[in-house]
């Protein structure tokens, strides 16, 4: 407490001190509150990370216990060699797990080799590599991207200015291409019975043309479908035309079917549409018989 | 069967070496298995050919069938031709390429037929999304010459096409136009790249000459390259310039990599430069016009030869970037002028 020697000053100084004290304590409590929030966030993230890890360790532990039970003579002592091997396996597994992120890379002597792993509907599909040389200007040394993917165009737009954008754009194109290819392949392999002619496709799988029947061997007219995928970053078509090969004026039920098929092809992946056709057919058959 | 078609098939089959004959005939898929089984391929070639022609007559081979056989023969003997590379470009803001093979073929054929009336156009698709096009050229008044066709290999939904060099240069603009319009591009330009080896050209153009990539899963760690020196060599023998040798090896490996180089037969440099000299007043230094000269490097396998120059001690490492930039710049014809 300041003396009463200089009362005016003393009071003001005291007031200032009190003001500082409150602002400091306010700042402190704010910081503490933030700390608490971040603390809980860190804990949550740690849980997210550790839970699968814990599960993995648990499973490992239980596997080891099983082995120990099966071979009761084997002692489960963790010597140094085993510990190192486990670490190595762990690291290898983590590196492999990068595949599931879709985009990974490895430093090379002259730059980086980027690996793009494509997927569609939870299925891991082809992987593509791009080997980049880190020089001015940044350039692509060699790659395994299919020749019809517009890699040069994407590189011309983004490689020099924004490498992240370049990689994400390339990922988009490749994933979409893989997805379209997957749908076309599935159609050819799984639903050949419903097709009345060969599937016409082009390298990018962005123009598909085929004829199909809902009841193979039946009397109905086949439908002709033409799917255009004008958006190369999409796995669903942008334009669909379904026509009936009958040539004569369609009855209203056929017209309804035709229109509904057009909508189906626009909204669902190709092989799923055909799967629903096959299911419907099976259902109708079972109802009839 | 037309006399000319019969003659054409006969001459094509005569070109095929006996050990390739069955493979090519099977790829042609025109004569049936049964028909082929009746042929004794161990006879003298003339007899085999006669028998085959007889079978073709029975099946009434058309000009188209004969042209297809010619395409297959050329596919098996690609390096008998010299291939040029063409690059097409689209206009700005053009639509996405919705390539339709049927439409392309029709359009291409129509453009040529409209211009020349007499022209034979045949197509054969391959598994690598490439279409081989064979064009036999005629004029308004003469029938197409089947013995001097031009081949074009077009990779659909890419801007690139490869064309066999021919002496009939006057049809090149028309061919370029047909290709450009049919594939929905705007412009076509000839690249400064040429070779007999179509696979190598493809690898260079599409930047796919090295199909090994470093991943975390690759089993081989970065190893020290052995210098080709015998590890069992007597320890009393020391190489004087081992440091220099290692440096050369390292630089060569960085420049050329570990993979097999694409195959080219030559690199050509046209120089147009003014004479540069330290001496003042020399006649050549005063010359206004640049000096012109042409330097050509030839080899059965140019890039491998260049790669071996420094390790063999014939050239200094690093090599001139004019030589090492060939795959990267996608050219083996260079024009060098004063800046």
Automatic annotation (TrEMBL), chain A:
<keyword id="KW-0539">Nucleus</keyword>
<keyword id="KW-0158">Chromosome</keyword>
<dbReference type="GO" id="GO:0005634">
    <property type="term" value="C:nucleus"/>
</dbReference>
<dbReference type="InterPro" id="IPR018464">
    <property type="entry name" value="CENP-O"/>
</dbReference>
<dbReference type="GO" id="GO:0031511">
    <property type="term" value="C:Mis6-Sim4 complex"/>
</dbReference>
<protein>
    <recommendedName>
        <fullName>Centromere protein O</fullName>
    </recommendedName>
</protein>
<comment type="similarity">
    <text>Belongs to the CENP-O/MCM21 family.</text>
</comment>
<keyword id="KW-0137">Centromere</keyword>
<dbReference type="Pfam" id="PF09496">
    <property type="entry name" value="CENP-O"/>
</dbReference>
UniProtKB/TrEMBL annotation, chain B:
<keyword id="KW-0539">Nucleus</keyword>
<dbReference type="GO" id="GO:0000775">
    <property type="term" value="C:chromosome, centromeric region"/>
</dbReference>
<keyword id="KW-0137">Centromere</keyword>
<comment type="similarity">
    <text>Belongs to the CENP-N/CHL4 family.</text>
</comment>
<dbReference type="Pfam" id="PF05238">
    <property type="entry name" value="CENP-N"/>
</dbReference>
<dbReference type="InterPro" id="IPR007902">
    <property type="entry name" value="Chl4/mis15/CENP-N"/>
</dbReference>
<protein>
    <recommendedName>
        <fullName>Centromere protein N</fullName>
    </recommendedName>
</protein>
<dbReference type="GO" id="GO:0005654">
    <property type="term" value="C:nucleoplasm"/>
</dbReference>
<dbReference type="InterPro" id="IPR052011">
    <property type="entry name" value="CENP-NAC/CAD_complex"/>
</dbReference>
<keyword id="KW-0158">Chromosome</keyword>
<dbReference type="GO" id="GO:0007059">
    <property type="term" value="P:chromosome segregation"/>
</dbReference>
<dbReference type="GO" id="GO:0034080">
    <property type="term" value="P:CENP-A containing chromatin assembly"/>
</dbReference>
């Amino acid at each position: 407490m300041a003396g009463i020697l200089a009362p005016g000053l003393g009071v003001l100084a005291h007031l200032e001190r009190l003001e500082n004290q409150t602002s400091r304590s306010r700042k402190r409590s704010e910081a503490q509150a933030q700390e608490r929030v971040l603390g809980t966030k860190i804990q949550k993230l740690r849980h997210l990370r550790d839970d699968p890890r814990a599960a993995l360790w648990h499973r490992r532990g239980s596997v080891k216990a099983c082995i120990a039970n099966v071979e009761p003579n084997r002692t489960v002592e963790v010597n140094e060699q085993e510990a190192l091997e486990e670490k190595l396996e762990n690291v290898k597994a983590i590196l492999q797990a990068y595949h599931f992120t879709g985009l990974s890379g490895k430093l090379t002597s002259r730059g980086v080799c980027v690996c793009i792993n494509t997927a569609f509907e939870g299925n891991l599909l082809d992987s593509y590599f791009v080997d980049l040389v880190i020089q001015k200007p940044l350039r692509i040394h060699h790659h395994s991207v299919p020749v019809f993917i517009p890699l040069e165009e994407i590189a011309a737009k983004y490689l020099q200015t924004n490498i992240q954008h370049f990689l994400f754009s390339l990922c988009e194109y490749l994933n979409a291409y893989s997805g379209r290819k997957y749908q076309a392949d599935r159609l050819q392999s799984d639903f050949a019975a419903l097709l009345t002619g060969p599937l016409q496709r082009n390298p990018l799988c962005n123009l598909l043309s085929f004829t199909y029947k809902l009841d193979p061997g039946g009397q109905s007219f086949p439908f002709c479908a033409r799917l255009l995928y004008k958006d190369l970053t999409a796995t669903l078509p942008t334009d669909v035309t379904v026509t009936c090969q009958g040539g004569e004026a369609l009855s209203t039920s056929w017209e309804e079917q035709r229109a509904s098929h057009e909508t189906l092809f626009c909204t669902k992946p190709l092989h799923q549409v055909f799967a629903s056709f096959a299911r419907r057919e099976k259902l109708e058959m079972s109802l009839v018989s | 069967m037309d006399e000319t078609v019969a003659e054409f098939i006969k001459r094509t089959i005569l070109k095929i070496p006996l050990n390739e004959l069955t493979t090519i005939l099977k790829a042609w898929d025109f004569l049936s298995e049964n028909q082929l089984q009746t042929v004794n391929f161990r006879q003298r070639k003339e007899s085999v050919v006669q028998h085959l022609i007889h079978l073709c007559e029975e099946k009434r081979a058309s000009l188209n069938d004969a042209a297809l056989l010619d395409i297959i023969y050329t596919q098996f003997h690609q390096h008998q031709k010299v291939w040029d590379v063409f690059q097409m470009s689209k206009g700005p803001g053009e639509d996405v390429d919705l390539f339709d093979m049927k439409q392309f073929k029709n359009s291409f054929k129509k453009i040529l037929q409209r211009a020349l009336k007499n022209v034979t156009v045949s197509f054969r698709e391959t598994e690598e999304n490439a279409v081989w096009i064979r064009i036999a050229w005629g004029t308004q008044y003469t029938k197409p010459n089947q013995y001097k066709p031009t081949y074009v290999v077009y990779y659909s939904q890419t801007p690139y096409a490869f064309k066999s060099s021919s002496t009939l240069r006057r049809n090149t603009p028309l061919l370029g136009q047909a290709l450009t319009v049919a594939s929905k591009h705007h412009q076509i330009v000839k690249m400064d790249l040429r070779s007999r080896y179509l696979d190598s050209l493809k690898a260079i153009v599409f930047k796919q000459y090295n199909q090994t990539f470093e991943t975390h899963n690759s089993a081989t760690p970065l190893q020290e390259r052995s210098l080709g020196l015998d590890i069992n060599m007597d320890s009393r023998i020391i190489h004087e310039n081992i440091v220099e040798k290692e440096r050369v090896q390292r630089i060569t490996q960085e420049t050329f990599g570990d993979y097999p180089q694409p195959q080219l037969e030559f690199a050509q440099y046209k120089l147009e430069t003014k004479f540069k000299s330290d001496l003042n007043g020399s006649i050549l230094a005063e010359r206004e016009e640049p000096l012109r000269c042409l330097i050509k490097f030839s080899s059965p396998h140019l890039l491998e030869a260049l790669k071996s120059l420094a390790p063999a001690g014939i050239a200094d490492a690093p090599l001139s970037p004019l030589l090492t930039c060939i795959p990267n710049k996608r050219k083996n014809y260079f024009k060098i002028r004063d800046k």
